[in-house]
Amino acid sequence: MQYLIKRVVLTIPVLLGVSIIVFSIIHIIPGDPVQFMFSGTGASLEQREAMRHSLGLDRPLPVQYVNYVLNAIRGDFGQSIHFNQPVTELILERMPATIEFSMASLFIALIVAFPAGIISSVKRNSIVDYMVMTGATLGISLPTFWVGILLIMLVAVNLGWLPGFGRIGYEAHLERVTGFYLIDSLLTWNIPAFRDTVAHLILPALSLGLAMSTFITRLVRSSMLEEIGKDYVRTARAKGLPEWTVLTHHVLPNALIPIITLIGMKIGGLLSGAVVAEVIFAWPGIGRLVIQAIYSRDYPVVQGVILFFALIYLTINFVTDALYVLIDPRIGHV
Amino acid sequence: MFKIRGQATKLTEIPEKLPLQQSKFKRVLRTVLRSKTAVFGGLVLGLFVLTAILAPVLMPHDPGQQNLKRRLAPPIGLGLENASIEYPLGNDNLGRDILSRLIVGSRVSLVVGVITVVLTTLLGSMLGAMAGYYRGRFDNVVMRLVDIWMAFPDILLAIAFAAALGRGLFNLIVALVLTNWVVYCRVVRAEVLVLREQEYVLAVRSLGGSDMRIIMRHILPNVLSSILVIATLQLGTVIVTEASLSFLGISVQSSVPTWGGMLADGREFMRQAWWLATFPGIAISIVVLGANLLGDGLRDALDPRL
Asked: Cβ contacts (< 8 Å) between A29 and chain B: which residues?
């Protein structure tokens, strides 16, 4: 518990630093940010001044920063210029889409990576091992957004098997309950909408999930190999336990510790991967929102999304650390 | 003169320092060369660098020249209509030669990749080395900065910086350097923390060697192998990030052909002309694969612990 409290306290300066960086994004724009936001729109001087005032840019920098932090603590990330809506509202509206997408990708990554990594480690230096490792090396080099485009071209455009864009078809009518379409469709027992949501999820999740699986496969393999060589495994085998039991009851639980930590750390990467993937698949999530905001120079949204992602990332890191302590209580006593 | 195993050697001919340095270099080179994948990676990267340097000579057409009669013309070898040996990879939506654009597009990837990696290496390694060496308050400040930086998803930070700074090669490189320095800083700091306690460092310090001299002459050379491995692997990451930013249209000016930009253009025409989005993707993947394979090979040869 003490360890976790210490961990929370240590996060505070990081949060402050994060807020300074996010705050300064609008200030590193060369020249006048309001001029930049309105360039080519023909906005009048009064409109510009009003925007300057509403963004608080007419106040001294330290005051602006303190206001920004105080508002952020209250969950107020400012007002979107383009959408004319509070940034927090925009983010919360789109958050379920991004989480659903990321979780589906993680699911695919895990169901591919665990069997591949385990087989590869058990059959070390065999043809299967070489194939898995070659696949992982090749896969790690393919840019996610290109894989996404290829999947759309092949599966959606040419074969027409699955939809390549959006989150749900226009013809599917789904009542919004939680914002997570898979859950909503089950809650309202709308099976056609559920099927449609799954169909829309497959390609985006495959493009991001396969990229992540290459990393996890390597991780599972090396972690398993390290454990397989240890004395307790030899003892378990000497007891006459079947190899399957040795693997699932002895090796895997121990190998899981570093795997969980690193997967936790990689979830942040998954979210950032989702940014580009969402643009490709026209997925209405936070990633697409931030890119739209950049195109329309809607800086309060850009700042809000980045701060939001950083907060999620820090929370995931914290949860991973907490899980780590639960799995291996020795850590908490260090 | 005396003979050793039939070879005549003069005592005075034996250099003082060279054999040790040479043997380490040779050992590493031998290990890297023994790995077929690392050699392949090195060759791919070499070819990429050569292509980028010799682009003006290699490209068969002007990459900006439009030939509307050949709009979306297919590549050769597929038996498709309108394919021409003059344009082996086909033409894009404005009839421009895809091969020439790919060749010239390698320049942005190379320039951005190499300059970013060099600058991040310098910045990250220096900060890491100083943090590890001086420890105390400076280390604390640098490590908190690292923690803060680590809280941002990589590409999002690059996107934010690139978008705020505006388009252009210089701004793009600044954005990528600001995003990537952390990796080097953490690794170098961790290694320097161990090295600074080594006896040879204590010896130099007791002889009156200045801190800068100790860091530059005695500590950094020992961290060089790790830096080299990370830099090679980072080259691939930076090239993919640059391509992602170009794809999103927040990299260099749109008039400059980039692989990411070509992919974005191709995406609009994937129904009619799959080759537009396919070839730039293959180019990015091959170069990144080359960097990854060479990085893996170097890691095995230089620092198996990484």
From this structure: 164-166
